[in-house]
Specification:
Layout lengths: L2 E14 L2 E14 L3 E5 L6 H8 L7 E6 L2 E2 L5 H11 E4 L11 H12 L7 H10 L15 H13 L5 E5 L7 H18 L3 E4 L3 H5 L3 E6 L2 E2 L4 E2 L3
Parallel strand pairs: 3-8, 3-9, 6-7, 7-8
Antiparallel strand pairs: 1-2, 1-4, 4-5, 9-10, 9-11
Helix pairs in contact: 3-5, 5-6
Adenosine-5'-triphosphate binds next to strand 1, strand 2 and helix 1.
Length: 231
């Protein structure tokens, strides 16, 4: 089995004025290829901090992160940006789409950031748009899409570059029940069809139940040992 993500004893202390806020107090986590992991826990327990560290958006105070064989923590800023671009797909609670670009334009932009040689892959783009049932919405701009459709475009954008791992921070947090179910089914399908490795933060027990493993956090630590719900 291929280990996609290895986080070792991560600590993160935020400095606010003269006060230290310990957000992570020694978190270790391993994710294998093809896993679909949920991270759960009360507000403020450090879930987003952990996800941002794993994705190289933040640097830890101490500890180490290895993504698909590459050490994020030892990398320079430029190298970390490069690893992030090649290996990681982010999906946030707010969809962060470019408002002036169509759905397809948003995907092309992600591809052009990913492949600096400007190569794009229309076949892959079509496949992803089809999988996410967005073919007929390709030419819509974000404001011409529903919330669920916007989140599906954000998901399409994250997977179109074939990242080693998708990191999603409450991807259904802004959606109603129906759209949440659609987006979660898409995650499941991506995991199942393409063996896409996914780590998803969620407050929703039903969403977590779709995952193969649930990691519970509290006060900056993982409270339960990694537990296989369904493999
Ligand atoms: N940029 C920051 N500067 C200072 N403190 C921060 C910063 N970001 C987060 N924190 C603090 O770190 C702790 C963990 O925050 P984090 O955002 O990781 O929690 P979370 O589990 O994602 O919560 P939620 O479920 O509400 O999104 C909190 O106490 C928070 O106030
Ligand atoms: Mg959060």
């Amino acid at each position: 089995m291929r280990t996609i993500l290895q986080a070792e004893n991560l600590e993160k202390v935020y400095r606010v004025g003269r006060v230290d806020v310990p957000a992570l107090r020694g978190v270790s986590l391993e994710v294998q290829e093809g896993e679909f992991v949920a991270i759960m826990g009360p507000s403020g327990c450090g879930k987003s901090t952990l996800l941002h560290l794993m994705g190289g958006l933040l640097t830890p105070t101490s500890g180490r992160i290895i993504i698909d064989g590459e050490d994020l923590t030892a990398a320079s800023d430029a190298k970390r940006t490069d690893i992030r671009r090649r290996k990681i797909g982010f999906v946030f609670q707010r969809f962060n789409l470019f408002p002036t670009l169509t759905a397809e334009g948003n995907l092309r932009l992600a591809e052009s950031i990913h492949n600096r040689n400007g190569k794009d892959d229309p076949e892959r783009r079509r496949e992803v748009l089809r999988l996410l049932r967005l073919e007929d919405k390709m030419h819509h701009k974000p404001l011409e899409l529903s919330g669920g459709e916007q989140q599906r475009v954000a998901l399409a954008r994250a997977v179109v570059t074939r990242p080693a791992i998708i990191l999603a921070d409450e991807p259904t947090g802004n959606l109603d029940t129906e759209n949440s179910a659609i987006v979660l089914n898409m995650f499941q399908e991506l995991n199942y069809r393409f063996n896409q490795t996914i780590v998803m933060i969620t407050h929703n027990p039903e969403a977590a139940a779709m995952c193969k493993r649930i990691v519970q956090m509290r006060d900056g630590q993982i409270v339960e040992p990694a537990q296989n719900v369904r493999m």
